[in-house]
Amino acid sequence: MTALNSHVYGLGMHTTSSQLGLTISDFFQEIHTKTWNLDRQLSNHLHQYLQEFIHPKTWQDLDFIAVAKGPGSFTSNRIGIVTARTLCQQLNIPLLGISSLAAFAWFHHQNYEIDEPIWVQMKASRGNLYGAIYRQNPQKNSLDIIVDDTVMMPEEWEKTLQGLNLSCQPLITPSKLGITAPSVLELAYHQWQQGKRPHWSEIMPFYGMSVFN
Q1: Model confidence pLDDT, tens digit, residues 37-95
Q2: Which fold has domain 101-172?
Q3: How far is CA 69 from CA 97, 184, 203, in A?
Q4: Where are the domains of the chain?
Q5: Is residue 7 predicted with pLDDT exceeding 80?
Q6: Distances (CA, A) of 93 to 70, 104, 181
Q7: Is CATH 3.40.640.10 the right assignment for the domain spanning 10-100+175-202?
């Protein structure tokens, strides 16, 4: 991560899968990340792990929070969004919501050429798929959206891909996505550098249909 201001601190949260991921960084020298495989115990442990993880920093050190907003587990996604919104409301700091699919794409972006589409796919319930397609934007050091997060039947998704003449292989998300919490925070920081300061009330979860519940 490259910093314009070493005094900016951000906290990244990823709760949308069976794996909790937290990361904190000043985007200059400090970055700390940790994951926990909690499955359905997220609500029992999230606040405790947050308190332990942020130490020795304090909540008042944070300039913003970034949260994965889905798709993923309905319950875990809701818990993460509510927690992040509450913290930002109490601290009076911005909340930036990042797609779980975009975070996974960014986690792997160095394996792709600049103009190469990054096609991400996740299983959804009732035979559906979540899908999104991105392309790297080197000027913004971020991702441009070709196809935004969507949920559809495989046949519809295949038609979408054919219409875009995509022949690359998809990135299939695993069941544990907490490891991409640093990508959530990094994408959010790129938005922060562009002057974006969303109010906590603006960030809503993308539920779609859950693969995990």
Answers
A1: 998 899 999 999 999 999 999 999 999 999 999 999 999 999 999 999 999 999 999 99
A2: Nucleotidyltransferase; domain 5 (3.30.420)
A3: 6, 10, 8
A4: 10-100+175-202, 101-172
A5: no
A6: 21, 25, 19
A7: no
